[in-house]
Amino acid sequence: MKRKDFLRNAGLLAASGALWNTGLFANNQQTIKVGLIGVNGMGWANLTALLKVPNVVCTALCDVDERILDKRIAELAQLQTTKVKRIIDHQELLKGDLVDAVIIATPDHWHCLQMVDAVNAGKHVYVEKPIGNSIKECEAMVAAAQKHNSIVQVGQWQRSQQHFADAIDFVHSGKLGKIRLVKAWAYQGWMKSIPVKPDEAVPTGVHYDRWLGPAKKRPFNPNRFHFEFRWFWDYAGGLMTDWGVHMLDYALIGMKAADPKSIMASGGKFAYPSDAAETPDTLTTVFEFDDFNIQWEHANGIDLGPYSRNHGVSFIGNNGTLVLNREGWEVIPEGDRMQAIALQKSKDNGLEKHMVNFVDAIRRNDRMILKAPIEAGANIAIFSQMGNIAYRTGTKLYWDKAKRSFTDKSANNYLVANYENGYKLPKV
Predict the structure, then answer these.
(1) What is the 3-state secondary structure (H, E, C) of 9-27?
(2) Number of neighbours of residue 408 by Cβ within 10 angstroms
(3) Low-confidence ranges of the chain (pLDDT < 50)
(4) pLDDT digit string (tens) for 141-169?
(5) How far is CA 284 from the centre of its chain?
(6) CA-CA distance, 386 to 264, in Å (whole number)?
(7) Distance (Å, rounded) from C-alpha 181 to C-alpha 288?
(8) Is the pTM of this model over 0.90?
(9) What are the phi and psi torsion angles at 356 (to 5°)?
């Protein structure tokens, strides 16, 4: 993708957040065949939400853990009568006309390879967030989707919730006055310490080499498998990329912002210094723009975040502060400068609406109506990666938006994930 095109797309991301209309199904009601790659956790939640959309069936399940795969096949038989194909290698799922669209819900380090393979095979894609595990992966994914004009929805389902749209409309109204600071956070009390465990034999039914893919070869360790993978740099980016892509996404939409001028971060393993995780359990990151800052903070093991919420984003203006999260939004006035607005509670299921929007875009063959298109997913995943890179270098970083790189050469070592075991970053 040409640099000017990428910058143009990034500049349009805030506008893409305004595509709130759900739309109606087109007259074309042909059955859409879907395959799921990565059947545990969020992958299964995505599929069950998608199957609630009329005329959608699952024809293939793919996973490298046969134990989970067999469990999901049995559960799927209770949801539909269509028989499903059992697959280990995702490339087999993409052959022929077995599926029209795929859900990719594997660990982050696999997203880029599988998404590019899928669009190259002519499939539409729903890919979990964060879309990639490095800045260059995200750029490659955007280029691949645009090359094939594919329908690619990112799993940032809050973009389909009406109360988020209403809150951003209020932010854009100017009633808060000049906004000088935006805070976004995730305090996750249920994410406890991960005890150190010894390496062990690969469990029966687990295709471990397929799970590792492009990541560094290591002995099997249960701490690095399934959900816990997200606390290790080989596969993911901790809470910064796991929750940051949700909350920081709305910070950018609210401020109609894209590239920061500078990034600095401080934190560490303050709560659980001796546990097995690599990513910080406590982190504060500041993204500098021309006349405002965006601040990210996260903490494992505690829930009492800003405004007594365990996650959210707040827009701090001269007249008042708007606080927004998945439960709803409210306005807290600065003295008597404006009226308070009581909590406006969420009234819809964001994930289910997100799937309706995905299917609608496929049937209309119109990627412009997607609530979370690949460009938006790439922008916020890159933004979150910047925060992690600032933390890992321990340096205040400056971003050259024209060159799509940092001015600090050592920071640029983190632009590309280290692909091993014969895998290479896709070239589009």
Answers:
(1) HHHCHHHHCCCCCCCCCCC
(2) 16
(3) 1-27
(4) 999 999 999 999 999 999 999 999 999 99
(5) 19
(6) 9
(7) 10
(8) yes
(9) -60, -45
